[in-house]
Design brief:
- The chain is of the alpha/beta class.
- The protein is built from 7 helices and 6 strands; from the N terminus they run ααβαββαβββααα.
- The chain has helices spanning 2-22, 39-58, 86-101, 161-172, 228-237, 312-324, 326-329; strands spanning 67-77, 123-127, 142-146, 180-185, 193-195, 207-210.
- Strands 1, 2, 3, 4, 5 and 6 form a 6-stranded mixed β-sheet that branches.
- β1, α3 and β2 form a beta-alpha-beta unit.
- The protein starts with a helix and ends in a 23-residue tail after the last helix.
- Bound molecules: zinc ion (ZN).
Length: 352
C-alpha cells in the first residue's frame, strides 16, 4: 500500500504548483520543487541505513561522525537587487549551522513532547575560501555570476528549473566532490527552492534557492525570511524526504516523525502557515500521533519562524548519506575551506 501511495504522490507532483496557484484566498504557499526519488532508490537506501546502524552498534559507539562541508554560493543575478550582499549570504550559513546543530531560531519553542527528539546532526557548513584553481576568493563562500555575461536569458519573473538545470548549472557549477553548490537566483514556477538527492549527476548536484528566501537579512521576504528554505533543501540533498512522505499519512522512513495529514488538502500531507499545537492528534489513526503532528519539522512546508527541528532518525539518514555516497563523503576532506600555509621563503643576508 505504501508503494502505491508513494507512486501516486510522485505522479501528482507536477500538478501541485498548478493547484496551489489556483487556490483563492490562500496565503502565499511554500512549494519545493525537489523530485522525490523512486521507491527502488529508497529501498536500496534503507539497506544502507540498516548497515550504518549495525556498524555503529558494532563499533559500540553512539557518536555520529562530524562532517564539515565547504559551501560555494553562486549568486546569479540579472538585476542588481538579485546580487545579494555578503551579509545576506553569511546570514544563511549561520542559519544552516544553527539548524543542523539543533539550536536554530525558535528551537526552544519545540513542544515538550518533541524536544527529546531534536537532533544535533553533527554536520556543519564552512565558506569555501578557494576557487577551483586554488585562488583565494575575494568573498569567502561566494561566486558572483552576472547572468548577461554568461549569455543567460532574461529571467522575467524567474528562471524555470529546466532552464537552470540545462543551462545555468552546467555553466557555473564547481566540482561537486569539493563544494556543496548552492545557486541563489530569481526562481520561477512558484518554487522557493529545489535540491538533488545523493547519487545523481555530478554537474547537477546541489541546491537552488530563490533570491528572496535566502538568509535572514537584505532582500528577503516574510514568511520565508529565516533561512529555512535552504535548511529544508539541504535536508533533501542529504536524503531526507518530506515529513509526510508526500502523501496523507504516508511514510518518510523515519520512525520518530509521526504520520500526518497536514493542512494542505492537496494530498501531499504537508502543512502550511503555522498550525496551533497540538495539531490533529492521532489524525492518521489511534495511537499514530498521540502528541499531534510534527509541523515544526524542517521537512514540512510551514512558515520559517514555525520550524524548529530535525529528529534523531533524520540525523541517521543524513549521516548514512554522508558516509555512503562518494559525492558527499569526499566533501568533508576537500580542504577548500582552509588556506594551506605558504612554504617558507628564505629572507636573510649574510656578510660571511
Ligand atoms: Zn522539499
Amino acid at each position: 500500500m505504501k508503494s502505491v501511495l508513494l507512486f501516486t504522490s510522485l505522479l501528482c507532483l507536477p500538478f501541485l504548483s498548478v493547484k496551489i496557484a489556483k487556490a483563492e484566498d490562500a496565503p502565499i504557499r511554500k512549494t519545493c520543487g525537489t523530485k522525490a526519488p523512486s521507491l527502488e532508490y529508497e529501498l536500496k537506501f534503507e539497506k544502507k541505513v540498516q548497515a550504518f546502524l549495525a556498524a555503529r552498534q558494532n563499533a559500540n559507539s553512539r557518536t555520529e561522525a562530524n562532517y564539515t562541508l565547504p559551501v560555494i554560493v553562486h549568486v546569479v543575478y540579472w538585476d542588481p537587487s538579485q546580487n545579494i550582499s555578503q551579509a545576506q549570504v553569511n546570514s544563511q550559513i549561520d542559519v544552516l549551522n544553527a539548524d543542523y546543530a539543533g539550536t536554530g531560531y525558535n528551537y526552544n519553542n519545540t513542544p515538550t513532547a518533541f524536544k527529546p527528539l531534536i537532533a544535533n546532526t553533527n554536520i556543519t557548513f564552512c565558506k569555501a575560501v578557494k576557487d577551483l584553481n586554488g585562488v583565494v576568493l575575494a568573498e569567502p563562500g561566494i561566486d558572483r555570476v552576472n547572468a548577461s555575461d554568461y549569455g543567460f536569458k532574461n529571467p522575467g519573473t524567474g528562471w524555470s528549473d529546466t532552464y537552470i538545470d540545462n543551462t545555468i548549472k552546467p555553466a557555473t557549477t564547481w566540482n561537486s566532490s569539493k563544494y556543496l553548490n548552492i545557486w541563489v537566483l530569481p526562481l520561477g514556477g512558484g518554487l522557493l527552492g529545489y535540491a538533488t538527492f545523493p547519487g545523481g549527476a555530478a554537474n547537477l548536484d546541489g541546491v537552488v534557492i530563490g533570491t528572496t528566501n535566502f538568509g535572514t537579512v537584505g532582500n528577503v521576504l516574510y514568511p520565508y525570511d529565516k533561512g529555512r528554505t535552504a535548511t529544508h533543501e539541504v535536508g533533501h540533498w542529504l536524503n531526507l524526504l518530506h515529513i509526510s512522505g508526500d502523501s496523507e499519512c504516508g511514510n518518510d522512513y523515519c520512525a520518530d516523525t509521526p504520520p500526518q495529514k497536514g493542512n494542505a488538502n492537496d494530498g501531499s500531507g504537508l502543512s502550511y502557515g503555522c498550525p496551533t499545537y497540538p495539531f490533529q492528534v492521532n489524525g492518521c489513526g489511534a495511537g499514530k500521533s498521540p502528541y499531534g503532528e510534527m509541523f515544526m519539522n524542517f521537512m514540512d512546508y510551514t512558515n520559517d519562524a514555525c520550524m524548529t527541528m530535525f529528529t534523531i532518525d533524520q540525523r541517521t539518514r543524513m549521516q548514512t548519506a554522508m558516509s555512503s555516497y562518494s559525492l558527499r563523503s569526499a566533501l568533508a576532506s576537500s580542504g577548500t575551506c582552509t588556506i594551506a600555509p605558504l612554504a617558507p621563503i628564505a629572507n636573510f643576508t649574510s656578510n660571511v
